[in-house]
Write a structure and sequence with these properties.
Length: 864
């Protein structure tokens, strides 16, 4: 821990102060800001710089104690306090100037708002007579003497408003002070508590460091466990709040307990004069009819100063005064009521739980619903409680709650009814897709009306996961959307969006996505269902070849502020998927998950989507040539595989294919890509089939043109047509056409494919004896690979090879360099050992070596 924390993020302000002091425009500067933002520290830096430059410096610190005495801040320069005040002021000025060079005296006054009137007059006189330059600090929100405010009002000094540190500067300061950047969670917590207040930040971090709760591990600083506000920091905050009347204290306490509190409720509870004074002192602030504490630390300290009984009473008063409402207000009221001295009210608690569910806070919803049930609202809580438990992946508990539901007394409640929840819980939480299908089959035998429509939508969702997009659309064609509530509508539209994307119809997928989004605010599941919808929409665009649109859509999602952690995590994964499609490996690896965030391990969407996004990370790692990490990530993905998610089978096969390619097992890579394409074709996933066949062609697989040409007539978007062009050029071994295809892939936004095809063009040109064209294509491939963040592949490796080998000879030579035996190579490439030996013999002759060991040395010597 540093004894003196560095000054971070103030370069502009320091430069401005120095400019003011060294030019004749002003005679000084007033630094104004809230307590703790660093006014005094910035003044100290400016004064120290002036002192180093040869200035004489006089330092004055005004205090509440000195304020009670005339010239109290200047007492050290007073020899005879019995002199008349004006005479004293003159003598003080003379003493300040004694020994200083003309125009080289700087007077620094800290907390000038605390100067007594005569001291303020003295400072004004110093400036007015140009006896010295001054740097004064002022606390905003405090009343300063008229002579001080006249300094900038009369144009003698420049007033500079100093704000708190930005989030970036706060993290930078922490990184320097702690010797390592804080991890995201620690950074978030510190920012929420301090909001860039440098004094609060330092006090808090130093306390936690001394307590052993701030540690540096694996290159990051971690804040471990909860913390109370340190006593020293509480004293500082108390001083900043100041001595205030009880009415003002009560205002701050009401706001701190609710934080925020709506203006109407505060007016009902608190004295109007107290509210106005608290606002004037900046202890509270108002925004859009909501009242917040002036700084988060004020709330922390006031809550710590209040005893449990007082807090329970205040919560009850606020909850009673609040109006009924939805959203965040209902949640605040429910939590306040639950933690107050009021008797439980099931209506208030259920209303709050409903709002918490809509905002994806399922832990809170579970707590509120259990309390409502205990208070006598059991019948109304069972279905929403089962849903909350289901979303928390507490499948067995959800099943127990569902078993307690009496079908006769609990009618279906829209989409979230007992039957749908049971089948959904079996499908996702209990990982029993067969049982889930059985429940839906049995219910469909007798169901009619809205319940039947709900069941058909769930069946469509089951079919989506089972990789049967055509069947999904057939089922949905028989659904009457007018009988569904908002959640059922979104579920149905999401299933259709996903299916159209799989079928290669991105325009229809986009239309379904737009229709679904119009229902987001109408149902309790809106925010949750919007996450998979975004994934399906982005996939539909990327798979069809509209990569730039996919990247823009994903980028819009990731830039949205104020969303729950699960939504942010989901948006990051989706952006990683789009980045991989665009060939940005650095962004893909930054956003695609390598491990499941412990804080989100029970989040339904993040936990269930981890498997498929982790498979994409495998591909990104393999394309960077990081074989070990790709192998480990593939194992982790499989550990989280879900038995119902058949629709991503081809994604897993492609991940294996790229891993095989990274190991230089090109034959295996082709076989896996072909298997992925076959699976997609058998299940009607036409867009995925195109992508898989394109990948096989990137591995050098030929005779794909006919199928891709047929798919180009079935699938919308540029990818199918460009992939068909690629396959035809590859069959013809036409380097010039491959060059054109590379340009087409780049224009489409798939830069990784563009790099591979440019590499294949270089190899084709070399085989045709066009050395110049080969060099040009290889150079383009190298530039594209670098643009992707250091991409590699068998095609890129072959293009850069100076060895006179055929593709098959090069593959075998590289496997030799890895230490594989002839038998291992034969097995990996589905060849006979004799055939492998023949290739090795011919390769040895081409480079003038005698045996397999020498050939392996040659390959290793040039970097393979």
């Amino acid at each position: 821990m540093l004894e003196r924390w560095p000054l971070v993020g103030r370069d502009r302000e320091i430069g401005e102060v120095s400019r003011i002091l060294t030019t004749g425009t002003y005679r000084g500067v007033a630094l104004a800001g809230k307590p703790g933002v660093g006014k005094s520290r910035l003044a100290d830096e400016a004064v120290a710089a002036a002192q180093d430059a040869g200035w004489t410096v006089r330092r004055i610190a005004a205090t509440a104690t000195s304020q009670s005495m005339s010239l109290g801040a200047f007492s050290q320069w007073i020899d005879d306090p019995g002199d008349p005040p004006l005479s004293l002021a003159g003598k003080v000025i003379a003493a300040l100037c004694a020994g200083a060079e003309p125009d080289r005296l700087l007077v620094s006054v800290d907390d000038a708002h605390l100067l007594d009137d005569l001291s303020a007059h003295l400072v004004h006189r110093i400036v007015q007579t140009d006896a010295a330059r001054v740097v004064v600090t002022i606390r905003t929100g405090e009343t300063a003497p008229g002579a001080v405010t006249a300094l900038w009002k009369d144009g003698f000094v420049a007033r500079q408003e100093l704000s708190a540190l930005s989030r970036v500067n706060t993290d930078e300061l922490l990184a320097v002070a702690l010797g390592a950047a804080p991890d995201p969670a620690s950074s978030d917590r510190l920012w929420e508590l301090t909001k860039g207040n440098a004094l609060y930040l330092r006090q808090l971090v130093e306390q936690e460091h001394r307590a052993g709760r701030f540690v540096v591990e694996h290159g990051a600083a971690h804040w471990l466990g909860p913390s109370e506000v340190p006593a020293t920091l509480a004293e500082v905050v108390d001083a900043h709040i100041g001595a205030v009347p009880d009415s003002v204290r009560d205002v701050v306490d009401y706001v701190a307990v609710a934080n925020p509190i709506d203006w109407h409720t505060l007016r009902v509870l608190a004295d109007q004069a107290g509210i106005e004074e608290a606002e004037q002192r900046e202890l509270i602030r108002t925004s859009d009819d909501m009242v917040y504490v002036g700084h988060p630390m004020y709330a922390e300290v006031r809550l710590a100063r209040s005893g449990p009984s007082r807090l329970r009473r205040l919560r009850g008063q606020i909850a009673m005064a609040m109006k009924d409402g939805g959203g965040a207000a209902a949640i605040r009221r429910g939590v306040l009521w639950l933690e107050s001295d009021l008797p439980p009210d099931p209506h208030v608690l259920i209303s709050a739980a409903t709002a918490a569910t809509a905002l994806l806070n399922y832990e809170l919803a579970e707590r509120l619903l259990n309390a409502a049930a205990d208070a006598g609202g059991n019948g109304e809580t069972r279905v929403p409680l089962a849903y909350a438990l289901f979303m928390l992946r507490k499948g067995k508990l959800a099943e127990q709650v569902l078993d307690d539901i009496d079908a006769d007394e609990t009618p279906p409640q829209g989409w979230l009814n007992g039957v749908i929840l049971r089948a959904s819980n079996l499908l996702w939480s209990m990982r029993s897709p067969e049982e889930s299908w059985r429940v839906v089959d049995e219910a469909l035998e007798t169901a009619n009306g809205p319940l039947r429509q709900d069941l058909l939508v769930l069946r469509a969702s089951q079919l989506s996961l089972a990789a049967r997009p055509a069947d999904v659309l057939e089922v949905m064609s028989g659904v009457d959307y007018t009988q569904l509530d908002a959640s059922g509508v979104m579920m149905g539209l999401n299933a259709e969006c996903m299916s159209y994307g799989e079928l290669g119809q991105p325009d229809r997928a986009a239309a379904k996505a737009e229709a679904s989004q119009r229902n987001i605010g109408l149902g309790v599941q809106g925010k949750f269902l919007d996450q998979p919808l975004a994934e399906f929409h982005v996939f539909a665009l990327a798979a069809s070849g509209r990569v730039t649109e996919a990247l823009d859509l994903a980028g819009h999602r990731i830039r949205q502020d104020g969303e729950p952690a699960s939504v942010r995590a989901s948006a990051a994964q989706i952006f990683g998927m789009a980045a991989l499609a665009a060939g940005d490996l650095e962004a893909a690896l930054r956003y695609l998950p390598g491990e499941l965030d412990p804080a989100l391990v029970n989040d339904f969407h993040v936990a269930n989507s981890f498997y498929r996004f982790c498979l994409l990370r495998v591909q990104a790692l393999a394309r960077r040539g990081d074989v070990d990490a790709a192998e480990q990530t593939l194992r982790q993905a499989r550990d989280h595989a879900h038995p119902a998610y058949e629709y991503v089978t081809s994604t897993e096969l492609l991940a294996e294919a790229w891993l095989a390619a990274a190991r230089q097992h090109l034959t295996q890579a082709r076989q896996l890509a072909w298997r992925a394409a076959e699976f997609a074709r058998e299940h009607g996933q036409l867009a995925r089939e195109v992508w898989c066949l394109q990948t096989a062609a990137q591995f050098g697989e030929t005779k794909l043109a006919a199928r891709l040409e047929r798919l180009a007539n079935l699938v919308e978007g540029p990818r199918a047509a460009v992939a068909a062009h690629h396959a035809a050029a590859l069959d013809a071994d036409d380097g010039h056409e491959l060059d054109r295809v590379s340009v087409e892939f780049e224009a489409m936004g798939d830069v990784l494919a563009a790099a591979d095809v440019a590499s294949q063009a270089a190899t084709a040109h070399r085989r045709a004896g066009r050395t110049g064209s080969a060099i040009t294509s290889a150079g383009r491939a190298s530039q594209l690979a670098a643009k992707c963040g250091g991409a590699t592949s068998p095609a890129i490796a072959a293009a850069s090879s100076a060895l006179p080998f055929t593709e098959r000879e090069l593959e075998i030579a590289m496997l030799l360099a890895q230490g594989l035996s002839n038998r291992d190579i034969a097995k990996a490439m589905s060849l006979s050992i004799r055939t492998v030996e023949g290739y090795i013999y011919r390769a040895c002759n081409k480079v003038g070596v005698k045996g397999r060991g020498d050939l392996a040395d040659v390959v290793r010597s040039i970097g393979y």
